[in-house]
Amino acid sequence: MGELVLNVLPYGLAAAAAAPIVAVVTALILARSKRPLLSAWVFTAGAAALDVAFAAVLLVAANASGAFEGGGSEGGAIVDVVLGAVFLAIGIRAVFSSESPDQRASQRERIERAAAGGLRGMLITGIVAQVINIDALTVFTGAIKEAAEADVSTPQAVVALGIALAVMLIPYYLPAVLYALSPRRSAPVLGEMSDWLLDHSRMLEIVVGIGFGAIFLTKGIASL
Hints:
There is one protein chain. By secondary structure, the chain is mainly alpha-helical. The chain has one domain (2-223). It contains 11 helices and no strands. The protein has helices at 2-17, 22-32, 36-65, 74-95, 101-114, 119-132, 134-149, 154-168, 170-181, 183-199, 201-223. α2 (22-32) packs parallel to α9 (170-181). The longest helix has 30 residues, at 36-65.
């Protein structure tokens, strides 16, 4: 069980790093909503619901097909190679892309509109945010692969994946935690964090993409 948790954590961290911009959405929800904390947690719950459904479907399919039977299976190595390729593609694309001030302003406007809905809208926005950040959901397949390969009971696999999911969703709920600790003091911190993430989103994509791409490719190729 402990070994499985250690194996799935890197995937949770990589998935969180792949979607830092959602922290901006949560921060704006906290700033604009009439029920800030409840709205932020409903937003997070929407993303979590999609992740749980995605993990359940993949685990059932993996168990039915036997694709990951035995630790260190070729199927698991292929998953790591694919994840590495996805991250490298994200990083390389960011290297050769550029974003104008108008595009950044448009992105912020879209985020502000998404943050202004009611509770039902927050739930849907959480689901949509996770779909848009499909690279984070893709990375989470690595954690599911580790759980499918591991020689542990189903409850232990569920607990390990739950821990990975909690790490993966840090960008969604961390602003809410800071707000709960101190609503008044967190406001300027969350505002500065949002501005920094929006201004440095391209740099983050390059670092995360190339860094995690190299890690997963190396791991996958070494296991083939």
